[in-house]
Write a structure and sequence with these properties.
By secondary structure, the protein is of the alpha/beta class. It folds into two domains: 7-126 and 323-380, Rossmann fold (3-Layer(aba) Sandwich), CATH 3.40.50.720; 131-314, 2-Layer Sandwich (Dihydrodipicolinate Reductase, domain 2), CATH 3.30.360.10. The chain contains twelve helices and 18 strands. The strands form four sheets. Strands 3-2-1-4-5-6-17 form a seven-stranded parallel β-sheet, sandwiched between helices. The chain has a seven-stranded mixed β-sheet with strand order 10-11-12-7-15-16-18, covered by helices on one side. A two-stranded antiparallel ribbon has the order 8-9. Helix 1 packs across helix 11.
Amino acid sequence: MKNILMRKVIVLGAGLVGAPMALDLAKEKEFDVLAVDFNEQNFGKLRAAGVQARKMDLSTEGAIEQVVADADFVINATPGFMGFESLRRIINSGKDCIDIAFYPENMFDLNELAKEKGVCVISDIGVAPGMSNLLSAYGVTLLDETEDIKIYVGGLPVKRELPWEYKAPFSPVDVIEEYTRPARFIVDGQVITKAALTDGEIIEFPVIGELEAFNSDGLRSLMYTLDVPNMIEKTLRYPNYIDKIKLLRDSGFFDTEKRIIDGKEVSPIELTSDLLFDQWKLEDNDRDLTVMQIIVSGLKDGKAQTHTFDLYDEHDDETGIHSMARTTGYTATVALRLLNARLFREDGVSAPEALAVSKENVDFMLNGLKERGVNYTHTIK
Protein backbone atom coordinates (compact mmCIF):
# COMPACT_ATOMS: atom_id res chain seq x y z
CA MET A 1 0.00 0.00 0.00
CA LYS A 2 1.25 3.46 -0.85
CA ASN A 3 2.24 5.56 2.14
CA ILE A 4 -0.03 8.64 2.07
CA LEU A 5 3.04 10.82 2.65
CA MET A 6 4.84 9.41 -0.38
CA ARG A 7 4.78 11.21 -3.71
CA LYS A 8 4.00 9.06 -6.73
CA VAL A 9 6.45 9.66 -9.61
CA ILE A 10 5.92 8.12 -13.05
CA VAL A 11 9.00 8.06 -15.31
CA LEU A 12 7.93 7.70 -18.93
CA GLY A 13 10.90 6.12 -20.71
CA ALA A 14 13.41 3.84 -18.99
CA GLY A 15 16.33 3.97 -21.41
CA LEU A 16 19.84 5.38 -21.01
CA VAL A 17 18.61 8.43 -19.07
CA GLY A 18 15.21 7.29 -17.81
CA ALA A 19 16.43 4.30 -15.81
CA PRO A 20 19.09 6.23 -13.83
CA MET A 21 16.47 8.88 -13.01
CA ALA A 22 14.12 6.23 -11.62
CA LEU A 23 16.97 4.70 -9.61
CA ASP A 24 17.98 8.08 -8.20
CA LEU A 25 14.46 9.02 -7.07
CA ALA A 26 13.75 5.56 -5.65
CA LYS A 27 16.63 5.95 -3.18
CA GLU A 28 14.46 8.35 -1.18
CA LYS A 29 11.56 7.03 0.87
CA GLU A 30 9.34 9.99 0.04
CA PHE A 31 9.04 8.93 -3.61
CA ASP A 32 7.07 5.95 -4.91
CA VAL A 33 8.56 5.45 -8.38
CA LEU A 34 7.26 3.59 -11.42
CA ALA A 35 9.26 3.43 -14.67
CA VAL A 36 7.36 2.73 -17.89
CA ASP A 37 8.87 1.65 -21.19
CA PHE A 38 8.02 -0.48 -24.23
CA ASN A 39 11.41 -2.25 -24.12
CA GLU A 40 11.50 -4.68 -21.20
CA GLN A 41 15.26 -5.10 -21.68
CA ASN A 42 15.63 -1.68 -19.99
CA PHE A 43 14.25 -3.03 -16.71
CA GLY A 44 17.21 -5.14 -15.55
CA LYS A 45 18.93 -2.66 -13.22
CA LEU A 46 15.59 -1.27 -12.06
CA ARG A 47 14.15 -4.58 -10.94
CA ALA A 48 17.47 -5.61 -9.41
CA ALA A 49 17.23 -2.47 -7.25
CA GLY A 50 13.59 -3.14 -6.37
CA VAL A 51 12.22 -0.30 -8.53
CA GLN A 52 8.81 -0.87 -10.09
CA ALA A 53 8.79 -1.14 -13.88
CA ARG A 54 5.95 -1.72 -16.33
CA LYS A 55 6.00 -2.60 -20.01
CA MET A 56 3.66 -0.40 -22.02
CA ASP A 57 3.42 1.10 -25.50
CA LEU A 58 3.05 4.77 -24.60
CA SER A 59 2.17 5.71 -28.17
CA THR A 60 -1.18 3.91 -27.99
CA GLU A 61 -4.32 5.91 -27.30
CA GLY A 62 -5.05 6.32 -23.61
CA ALA A 63 -1.84 4.65 -22.40
CA ILE A 64 -0.22 7.74 -20.90
CA GLU A 65 -3.49 8.95 -19.42
CA GLN A 66 -3.98 5.58 -17.73
CA VAL A 67 -0.51 5.19 -16.27
CA VAL A 68 -0.21 8.75 -14.90
CA ALA A 69 -3.72 8.84 -13.41
CA ASP A 70 -2.57 8.60 -9.77
CA ALA A 71 0.78 10.41 -10.22
CA ASP A 72 1.91 13.45 -8.26
CA PHE A 73 4.72 14.11 -10.74
CA VAL A 74 5.57 12.81 -14.21
CA ILE A 75 8.98 12.81 -15.90
CA ASN A 76 8.69 12.85 -19.68
CA ALA A 77 11.73 10.99 -21.02
CA THR A 78 10.06 9.62 -24.14
CA PRO A 79 11.93 9.73 -27.49
CA GLY A 80 12.01 13.10 -29.21
CA PHE A 81 9.70 12.07 -32.06
CA MET A 82 6.85 11.45 -29.59
CA GLY A 83 7.93 13.79 -26.79
CA PHE A 84 5.74 16.80 -27.61
CA GLU A 85 2.56 14.76 -27.97
CA SER A 86 3.44 12.87 -24.77
CA LEU A 87 3.77 16.16 -22.91
CA ARG A 88 0.42 17.34 -24.28
CA ARG A 89 -1.23 14.20 -22.93
CA ILE A 90 0.49 14.57 -19.55
CA ILE A 91 -0.72 18.18 -19.28
CA ASN A 92 -4.24 17.19 -20.31
CA SER A 93 -4.14 14.68 -17.46
CA GLY A 94 -3.50 17.56 -15.06
CA LYS A 95 -0.05 16.40 -13.92
CA ASP A 96 2.99 18.49 -13.01
CA CYS A 97 5.88 17.43 -15.23
CA ILE A 98 9.64 17.50 -15.61
CA ASP A 99 10.21 17.27 -19.36
CA ILE A 100 13.46 16.08 -20.99
CA ALA A 101 12.08 14.64 -24.24
CA PHE A 102 13.98 17.28 -26.30
CA TYR A 103 11.49 17.34 -29.19
CA PRO A 104 11.84 19.72 -32.19
CA GLU A 105 8.51 21.46 -31.50
CA ASN A 106 8.25 24.68 -29.46
CA MET A 107 7.60 23.90 -25.77
CA PHE A 108 5.76 27.20 -25.34
CA ASP A 109 3.03 26.06 -27.73
CA LEU A 110 1.69 24.08 -24.74
CA ASN A 111 1.98 26.96 -22.29
CA GLU A 112 -1.66 28.07 -22.43
CA LEU A 113 -2.91 24.49 -22.09
CA ALA A 114 -0.74 24.01 -19.00
CA LYS A 115 -2.05 27.23 -17.47
CA GLU A 116 -5.63 26.19 -18.21
CA LYS A 117 -5.04 22.85 -16.49
CA GLY A 118 -3.21 24.41 -13.53
CA VAL A 119 -0.09 22.39 -14.33
CA CYS A 120 3.56 23.29 -13.73
CA VAL A 121 5.99 22.03 -16.38
CA ILE A 122 9.74 22.58 -16.55
CA SER A 123 10.93 21.62 -20.03
CA ASP A 124 14.39 20.99 -21.51
CA ILE A 125 15.82 20.53 -18.01
CA GLY A 126 18.84 18.36 -18.83
CA VAL A 127 22.48 19.38 -19.24
CA ALA A 128 22.29 21.28 -22.56
CA PRO A 129 19.64 22.41 -22.96
CA GLY A 130 19.04 22.61 -19.24
CA MET A 131 21.88 23.66 -16.98
CA SER A 132 23.32 25.62 -19.92
CA ASN A 133 20.14 27.75 -19.88
CA LEU A 134 19.96 28.01 -16.11
CA LEU A 135 23.57 29.09 -15.63
CA SER A 136 23.45 31.48 -18.60
CA ALA A 137 20.45 33.21 -17.06
CA TYR A 138 22.05 33.14 -13.62
CA GLY A 139 25.15 34.79 -15.06
CA VAL A 140 22.94 37.55 -16.43
CA THR A 141 21.59 38.24 -12.94
CA LEU A 142 25.15 38.73 -11.66
CA LEU A 143 25.89 41.53 -14.14
CA ASP A 144 24.47 45.02 -14.54
CA GLU A 145 24.62 44.66 -18.33
CA THR A 146 25.23 41.45 -20.27
CA GLU A 147 26.91 41.70 -23.65
CA ASP A 148 27.75 38.14 -24.61
CA ILE A 149 26.96 34.49 -23.82
CA LYS A 150 28.97 31.59 -25.24
CA ILE A 151 28.08 27.96 -24.57
CA TYR A 152 30.37 25.07 -25.50
CA VAL A 153 29.17 21.52 -24.83
CA GLY A 154 29.88 17.97 -25.92
CA GLY A 155 29.50 14.33 -24.92
CA LEU A 156 32.49 12.19 -25.92
CA PRO A 157 33.99 8.74 -25.37
CA VAL A 158 36.87 8.65 -22.90
CA LYS A 159 38.71 6.25 -25.23
CA ARG A 160 39.40 7.76 -28.65
CA GLU A 161 38.94 5.24 -31.45
CA LEU A 162 39.39 6.07 -35.13
CA PRO A 163 37.82 6.92 -37.46
CA TRP A 164 35.07 8.77 -35.56
CA GLU A 165 36.38 9.23 -32.01
CA TYR A 166 32.73 9.56 -31.07
CA LYS A 167 29.98 7.53 -29.43
CA ALA A 168 26.32 8.56 -29.39
CA PRO A 169 23.97 7.99 -26.47
CA PHE A 170 21.19 8.77 -28.96
CA SER A 171 20.12 7.40 -32.32
CA PRO A 172 22.45 8.30 -35.23
CA VAL A 173 19.41 9.85 -36.95
CA ASP A 174 19.07 12.36 -34.10
CA VAL A 175 22.80 13.12 -34.11
CA ILE A 176 22.92 13.58 -37.89
CA GLU A 177 19.95 15.93 -37.62
CA GLU A 178 22.18 18.22 -35.54
CA TYR A 179 24.65 18.30 -38.44
CA THR A 180 22.05 19.20 -41.07
CA ARG A 181 19.74 21.61 -39.21
CA PRO A 182 20.79 25.26 -39.68
CA ALA A 183 22.35 26.85 -36.60
CA ARG A 184 20.67 29.95 -35.18
CA PHE A 185 22.40 32.41 -32.89
CA ILE A 186 22.19 36.06 -31.87
CA VAL A 187 24.58 38.73 -33.17
CA ASP A 188 24.03 42.39 -32.28
CA GLY A 189 20.49 41.59 -31.23
CA GLN A 190 19.58 39.90 -34.53
CA VAL A 191 18.91 36.23 -35.24
CA ILE A 192 21.61 34.93 -37.59
CA THR A 193 21.43 31.59 -39.37
CA LYS A 194 24.40 29.60 -40.64
CA ALA A 195 24.91 26.03 -41.72
CA ALA A 196 25.77 23.59 -38.96
CA LEU A 197 29.45 22.58 -38.67
CA THR A 198 30.62 26.09 -39.63
CA ASP A 199 33.04 28.43 -37.81
CA GLY A 200 35.16 25.62 -36.47
CA GLU A 201 37.74 26.50 -33.84
CA ILE A 202 40.12 24.67 -31.52
CA ILE A 203 39.68 25.46 -27.82
CA GLU A 204 41.65 24.27 -24.80
CA PHE A 205 39.59 22.91 -21.90
CA PRO A 206 40.59 21.88 -18.38
CA VAL A 207 41.32 18.14 -17.92
CA ILE A 208 40.57 17.07 -21.50
CA GLY A 209 42.75 19.48 -23.52
CA GLU A 210 42.04 20.58 -27.09
CA LEU A 211 38.59 20.13 -28.60
CA GLU A 212 37.00 21.26 -31.84
CA ALA A 213 33.95 23.55 -31.58
CA PHE A 214 31.42 24.22 -34.34
CA ASN A 215 28.08 25.94 -34.80
CA SER A 216 24.96 23.99 -33.84
CA ASP A 217 21.34 24.95 -33.23
CA GLY A 218 21.41 24.66 -29.45
CA LEU A 219 20.19 27.95 -27.99
CA ARG A 220 16.54 26.87 -28.15
CA SER A 221 14.46 28.90 -25.65
CA LEU A 222 17.35 31.23 -24.76
CA MET A 223 16.79 33.00 -28.09
CA TYR A 224 13.43 34.23 -26.83
CA THR A 225 13.79 34.50 -23.05
CA LEU A 226 17.08 36.41 -22.59
CA ASP A 227 17.64 39.94 -23.84
CA VAL A 228 21.37 39.57 -24.59
CA PRO A 229 22.77 41.02 -27.85
CA ASN A 230 25.21 38.19 -28.57
CA MET A 231 24.55 34.50 -27.86
CA ILE A 232 25.86 31.32 -29.42
CA GLU A 233 26.13 27.62 -28.62
CA LYS A 234 28.74 25.36 -30.17
CA THR A 235 29.10 21.59 -30.09
CA LEU A 236 32.40 20.03 -29.00
CA ARG A 237 34.15 17.05 -30.55
CA TYR A 238 37.70 15.76 -30.74
CA PRO A 239 39.83 17.62 -33.35
CA ASN A 240 39.33 16.87 -37.08
CA TYR A 241 35.77 15.64 -36.59
CA ILE A 242 34.20 18.42 -38.66
CA ASP A 243 35.97 17.43 -41.87
CA LYS A 244 34.82 13.80 -41.54
CA ILE A 245 31.17 14.74 -41.10
CA LYS A 246 31.31 17.37 -43.86
CA LEU A 247 32.66 14.73 -46.23
CA LEU A 248 29.63 12.53 -45.56
CA ARG A 249 27.19 15.45 -45.76
CA ASP A 250 28.64 17.00 -48.91
CA SER A 251 28.80 13.60 -50.62
CA GLY A 252 25.06 13.06 -50.16
CA PHE A 253 25.12 10.48 -47.36
CA PHE A 254 22.63 12.56 -45.32
CA ASP A 255 20.14 13.09 -48.18
CA THR A 256 16.56 12.10 -47.40
CA GLU A 257 15.31 11.57 -50.99
CA LYS A 258 14.79 7.87 -51.64
CA ARG A 259 16.61 6.10 -54.47
CA ILE A 260 15.89 2.80 -56.15
CA ILE A 261 18.78 0.34 -55.78
CA ASP A 262 18.32 -3.21 -57.07
CA GLY A 263 14.58 -2.63 -57.11
CA LYS A 264 14.41 -1.43 -53.51
CA GLU A 265 13.70 2.08 -52.28
CA VAL A 266 16.23 3.43 -49.80
CA SER A 267 17.36 6.90 -48.79
CA PRO A 268 21.05 7.71 -48.19
CA ILE A 269 20.26 8.88 -44.65
CA GLU A 270 18.62 5.54 -43.80
CA LEU A 271 21.63 3.61 -45.07
CA THR A 272 24.09 5.94 -43.33
CA SER A 273 22.24 5.67 -40.03
CA ASP A 274 22.14 1.90 -40.27
CA LEU A 275 25.88 1.72 -40.94
CA LEU A 276 26.76 4.17 -38.18
CA PHE A 277 24.48 2.67 -35.55
CA ASP A 278 26.94 0.03 -34.38
CA GLN A 279 29.97 2.28 -34.89
CA TRP A 280 28.51 5.11 -32.80
CA LYS A 281 26.54 3.09 -30.26
CA LEU A 282 27.47 3.84 -26.65
CA GLU A 283 27.64 0.38 -25.09
CA ASP A 284 27.06 -0.30 -21.39
CA ASN A 285 30.79 -0.78 -20.80
CA ASP A 286 31.87 2.29 -22.81
CA ARG A 287 33.21 5.08 -20.61
CA ASP A 288 32.04 8.53 -21.69
CA LEU A 289 32.57 12.09 -20.54
CA THR A 290 30.66 15.37 -20.65
CA VAL A 291 32.34 18.75 -20.96
CA MET A 292 30.59 22.11 -20.90
CA GLN A 293 31.69 25.71 -20.54
CA ILE A 294 29.37 28.70 -20.26
CA ILE A 295 30.89 32.18 -20.55
CA VAL A 296 28.73 35.17 -19.61
CA SER A 297 30.37 38.56 -20.18
CA GLY A 298 29.31 42.14 -19.55
CA LEU A 299 29.61 45.03 -17.13
CA LYS A 300 29.44 45.20 -13.35
CA ASP A 301 29.73 48.55 -11.60
CA GLY A 302 30.99 50.03 -14.87
CA LYS A 303 33.83 47.49 -15.26
CA ALA A 304 34.16 44.47 -17.56
CA GLN A 305 33.35 41.19 -15.80
CA THR A 306 33.11 37.59 -17.00
CA HIS A 307 31.46 34.64 -15.26
CA THR A 308 32.58 31.20 -16.44
CA PHE A 309 30.84 27.96 -15.45
CA ASP A 310 32.72 24.72 -16.18
CA LEU A 311 31.57 21.11 -16.08
CA TYR A 312 33.72 18.03 -16.56
CA ASP A 313 32.11 14.69 -15.74
CA GLU A 314 32.95 11.05 -16.47
CA HIS A 315 31.16 7.71 -16.48
CA ASP A 316 30.54 6.41 -12.94
CA ASP A 317 32.48 3.15 -12.74
CA GLU A 318 30.81 2.15 -9.46
CA THR A 319 27.23 2.39 -10.72
CA GLY A 320 27.92 1.87 -14.43
CA ILE A 321 25.89 4.99 -15.25
CA HIS A 322 27.09 6.98 -18.24
CA SER A 323 28.10 10.61 -17.84
CA MET A 324 25.48 11.84 -20.30
CA ALA A 325 22.81 10.04 -18.28
CA ARG A 326 24.16 11.48 -15.01
CA THR A 327 24.47 15.07 -16.17
CA THR A 328 21.11 15.02 -17.96
CA GLY A 329 19.05 12.74 -15.73
CA TYR A 330 20.20 14.04 -12.36
CA THR A 331 19.45 17.60 -13.45
CA ALA A 332 15.88 16.46 -14.07
CA THR A 333 15.55 14.59 -10.76
CA VAL A 334 16.94 17.53 -8.78
CA ALA A 335 14.46 19.79 -10.59
CA LEU A 336 11.66 17.44 -9.54
CA ARG A 337 12.85 17.74 -5.94
CA LEU A 338 12.78 21.51 -6.40
CA LEU A 339 9.09 21.29 -7.33
CA ASN A 340 8.40 18.89 -4.48
CA ALA A 341 10.03 21.34 -2.04
CA ARG A 342 7.74 24.07 -3.44
CA LEU A 343 10.70 26.31 -4.21
CA PHE A 344 9.32 26.83 -7.71
CA ARG A 345 5.70 26.81 -8.75
CA GLU A 346 4.42 28.55 -11.85
CA ASP A 347 1.49 27.27 -13.87
CA GLY A 348 2.41 26.90 -17.53
CA VAL A 349 5.48 25.64 -19.37
CA SER A 350 8.75 27.10 -18.10
CA ALA A 351 12.20 26.84 -19.63
CA PRO A 352 15.16 26.10 -17.30
CA GLU A 353 16.25 29.74 -17.27
CA ALA A 354 13.06 30.61 -15.38
CA LEU A 355 14.61 29.00 -12.28
CA ALA A 356 17.44 31.55 -12.27
CA VAL A 357 15.19 34.30 -10.90
CA SER A 358 16.04 32.95 -7.44
CA LYS A 359 19.57 32.27 -6.18
CA GLU A 360 17.97 29.75 -3.82
CA ASN A 361 16.81 27.77 -6.85
CA VAL A 362 20.25 27.91 -8.47
CA ASP A 363 21.97 26.80 -5.26
CA PHE A 364 19.42 24.00 -4.82
CA MET A 365 20.17 22.70 -8.32
CA LEU A 366 23.96 23.00 -8.03
CA ASN A 367 24.05 21.44 -4.55
CA GLY A 368 21.73 18.61 -5.59
CA LEU A 369 23.96 17.80 -8.55
CA LYS A 370 27.07 18.02 -6.37
CA GLU A 371 25.58 15.46 -3.98
CA ARG A 372 25.34 13.14 -6.99
CA GLY A 373 28.93 13.76 -8.09
CA VAL A 374 28.15 16.24 -10.88
CA ASN A 375 30.23 19.32 -10.13
CA TYR A 376 30.11 22.76 -11.72
CA THR A 377 32.79 25.36 -11.02
CA HIS A 378 32.24 29.12 -11.18
CA THR A 379 35.05 31.59 -11.80
CA ILE A 380 34.86 35.37 -12.07
CA LYS A 381 37.26 37.63 -13.95
